[in-house]
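Protocol step 4 of 6: record predicted structures for both targets in the notebook before any analysis. Target 1:
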Amino acid sequence: MYITCLDLEGVLVPEIWIAFAEASGIPELKLTTRDEPDYDKLMNYRLRILKEHGLGLKEIQETIAKIDPLPGAKEFLDKLRSITQVVIISDTFEQFATPLMKKLGWPTIFCNSLTVAPDGEITGFKMRVKNSKVTTVKALQSMGYETIASGDSYNDLGMINESKAGFLFKSTDKIKQDNPNLPAYETYDELLEAIKGAMD
């Protein structure tokens, strides 16, 4: 039995932090896991910038409310879920992901949570488990599942390499060059065919 594990941002929806950087006019917030492999370092950097500008959860959620899934993402997910179990494994936070899950038809997502003060300031973040993507894939395998994984960033490489089959999707030239062994796709049709092929 197969479970396909997908990243969320950059694969199914636009990058939340990039959208918020543009909405808030703070270019420093454009940094993502495509640029910084160390997620703790990246999040602490983001929280410092939010604090400096007096921005909190409410402002980010207002931006998220305007974000739609990438064109074709929901249709791709619907087709994929008709042939295999699918889990979205993301380093985002439930406070960010919920409105996007509604727009994607409520797929299963494993993500993290934010610590938020009564005034809306984001004071910290709680990771579900260490190295959540690769840890989750190994846990699914320990339950007898074969995993297929796809993502676009540095933090997806662990789950991609740990899986029976793994694919880069809409990734950067740098990540593709650094991982020439990984098939890389740009369209949902290509990715769907690759996943089907891996299940044969």
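Target 2:
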Amino acid sequence: MFQMSNKLRGYILGIVGGAAYGLNPLFAVPLYKSGLDASSVVFYRYLTAVVLVAALAKMKGYSLKIDRKSLSVAFCLGLMVIGSSLSLFHSYNYMDVGIASTILYVYPVMVAAILALFYNERLSLRTGLCIVLAMAGIALLYVNGDGVKLDALGAVLALVSALTYAIYMVCINKSRLRRLPTIVVTFYILLMGLVIYIPFFLAGFRFAPVDSGNQLFLIFCIALFPTVISFVCTASAVLKIGSTPASILGALEPATAVVVGVCVFNEHLTIRTGIGMLLVLVAVLVIITKKEK
């Protein structure tokens, strides 16, 4: 009988996690059109995801009890995750969404740099090639040729988003949280991320109300697929194959988003975006066919 290796399982989880995260537009766009603003969508998304992960942990028989040190690490990583989402969202106010997303996906390079600088991990030629291929593919997927100027503040916000996510990808593997079940880690990271909204509540801010069954369904879907499934699979992949390979597999996120745009929102698939998707797939194939030592 075929026995799946731990590495292969990690690559599959990374692919599922990256592809699942790329489903964000499938649910977010209809929510925006229904009247919910982006801040409300993010809040409802993470709140629902916390409930779903807690239910999943209980079904699997996992205890959600953790020590204080682990809780403090989860708090920091939760702020990183939410901070990455919010800074990217605000960058959209200053530049084209595609360009901001392109800048975001320099995070595999940042992951490799952090590991090299602070953990003395060497970047192999094969992994470096995968990073170059993935970034080139993503650039073709997003960057247009309309001569759009790059806004400095928007670029800084997008880079902050990339850096905070890169730190998260490294710390999830290098911190004391790696000793805990992935479901438990995901629960606390999402829960601690919601803490950033407390000042908004104290200031009297109110989120847009959910007033239809369709909105509830879309919120459930955006919490399940690009949040719970993506976070759990990606975190598991990081633990099994490492931060850098898992971040390269994350290049499937924008590729999936392009497919959703073409199939659901009637966007056009150009030769350029087709080549971009091909480069991303090549990068993924190169990294997952790496021989185990």
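Step 5 preliminary note on target 2. The CA atoms of residues 7 and 292 lie 8 Å apart. The chain has one domain: 6-205+212-288.
Proceed to step 6 after PI sign-off.
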